[in-house]
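Recall the central idea of this unit: under ordinary conditions, the amino acid sequence of a chain determines the structure it adopts. In this exercise we apply that idea directly, starting from the sequence alone.
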Amino acid sequence: MTLLPPSPTVSVKTLVGLGVVFCTLLCGFDASANCLTLFRQKKFEAASRCFVKQAEKVGPSGTLSSTQKIQKGRLLRNAALTLTRGAKQSSSTRAAGMRSKAITLLKRYLSEGLFESSGMKSNTEKQLQALEKQIGYTNLTVVTNHPAAEICLQAGSFKKCKRAMLWTLKLLPKTYQTTVTYPLKPPVTQSKVLTALPRTRKTLVFTPPVKSESLLSIVTGDTGATMSLQNLKTKKSLVHRGGFWSKTLSPGVYQLKLIYPGRPAIQRTVTMKKGRPEILVFRKPGPPVLIINTTPINAQVYIDGKYRGNTGIKLKLKVGQRNVELRRGCFVIYKKMLTLKPNEERSLSVVLQRDAAYIKWKKASKGSGGAIAGWSVLAVGALAAGTGGVMQGLASGKHGEALTVRGYDLNKFQTLADEGNTFRTVGYTGIAVGVVGIGVGIATLIATRPVARTSIPCQVPLKEQN
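Accordingly, the structure predicted from this sequence is:
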């Protein structure tokens, strides 16, 4: 993570142990040193508030010069990046709150045009998308079936209210108390507890008190969706287009036809009874999502025979049966047939198994079997050859002594000559055995030498990076 200098005229200091770059102001903002101190102390939220305070001191964005805008933008961005750093060291709930604040700051940075280049703008937009994925918002839809109903969501100090028949919003993962108050005499309040989980969709439906008529509410979630409703008895039809439709109907049986743009029609038979509301919630058909991870990482992913990237990937696929193959050098190919449904999000985590050829090579590389025998024979051969050489030296010594006594002591001459011949014979034998042993040992080592890693005959060839 890199904290940007608050203005172009700054000196850069490296934060030891954190591996981030931070720049202090040289233009009179003494409080910048306090922000740096708080950051070093890992008081990330306090440091972020400090940066925001300094940004506010620069002045309203609409009145600033280009240099001042860059200065203010960098301070706001530093505030956001500080929260992002703190989120990595916090509990999941607190981290989500910190990332949410960082998103607010980065959106302000973009909306007020405080970026210094198009590249910085693009990077910030990408960071916003990454933060939203990390948070894993809950997408909530609240249906009240009354245009003046007041919806309130509360969790601790957080509280947000709105008057609407339909309210769609994103929420941080936590538990919320949801209340809907209908403007009747007297007012009627209904409440529900919502447990917002990361990356989920929730729909809460509230129904106002009704008397004789039957209220039908349809949630499509797509403003381009077309709904047609036909009374099967009277054959009268009603048509509506949008993300929500609430209609008071007479009791009876109706045929609903729902068409999303570019999608096949969805048909449903609805029976309306006197005084009993009906709520239908649809979700626009979307592609299934498959998240694939492996141990070890970076296996190649093939979907229906086509390479789609390496594991750790999130793919949008076609509905139906999909053939998944995972390949990594010198691991057994993993194959699985999956049946995927619209809007489904599925995770596939696989521990890959080693190829038998690699296991065999690994054992050979550790010097087992023939390699051990080869070294043993080579050692014995070297020892025999060395012993033979020593015997040859002793033989030469005995023969030399025999020559010195030959002229005056034939018996001693004969004894020394025989001893020398014995040593000579043993020496030749030792050398011969040694040469053969060394040759056999070398041949065995060559024959049992493991092949190179990249030449192992695995089902999937092994590359150096594996």
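Residues 410-448 form the longest helix (39 residues).
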